[in-house]
Amino acid sequence: MALPGSKMLVLVERPTAYVRLVGRAAVEGAPDFKLLIRRLSEEGVHQFCLDLTECRLMDSTFSGVLAALASESGSGAEQESPQFTLVNPNPRITDLLDNLGVFSLVKVLHGDIATPAAGSEQEVPAAGASKDEIAQCCLEAHEFLKALKPENRAKFSELTRMLGQRTLAGR
Q1: Widest CA span in the chain
Q2: Does the pLDDT at position 158 exceed 70?
Q3: Integer CA distances (angstroms), 17 to 49, 65, 91, 141, in order
Q4: Which end of the chain has the smaller Cβ count within 10 Å, N or C?
């Protein structure tokens, strides 16, 4: 379920995947982002460069998914944990990630950074997550954020309670 005007584009140049987020990185695209990173990780890609130059907004769900993926440890001797570098997040996104405690899990770069030329990437098609799948993704993201930083508990307790009830009712 993509937002109008929002896109996720990817180019893989092993060992790195370049992901360009255009428009809004929000709850509707979080399941697709999660699927993309997990698939690429299974294929042996563990370095992710997220170009946020054209990303106007990132919400807490997308931030929580990013944080959870960045903190995953590899299973088995051959798997590494994903490493994320965020390129050119705007001040609004920077403030959000800082306030939620996500910066401790990622690297951030500003300026003219060598990323693939626009047009060389492929657009990631929306998988069409259901409302229940989006709610589950949102719940998991906010539960992770609550565990990441104590101050997040108060921010997201009511939301996770409501989402938890919804996911239980949907089963």
Answers
A1: 48
A2: yes
A3: 6, 17, 24, 22
A4: C
pLDDT the model gives residue 3:
66
Q: Provide the H-helix boundaries in 12-150.
A: 30-42, 60-71, 91-100, 131-148
Packing angle between helix 60-71 and helix 91-100, nearest 10 degrees? 60
**Buried b / exposed e along 78-109 (16+ C-beta atoms within 10 A):** eeeebebbbbbbeeebbebbeebbbeebbebe
DSSP percent split of the chain into helix, strand, coil, nearest 5: 45, 20, 35
Q: Where are the alpha helices (DSSP H) in 101-150?
A: 131-148
Give me Rg for the CA atoms of the chain.
Answer: 16
Q: Count of H helices and E strands in the chain?
A: 5, 7
3-state DSSP assignment of residue 130: coil
Residue 86 three-state SS = strand
Residue 117 clears pLDDT 70, i.e. is over it: no
- Judge contact between 84 and 66, C-beta under 8 A: yes
CA atoms within 13 A on the CB side of 80: 12
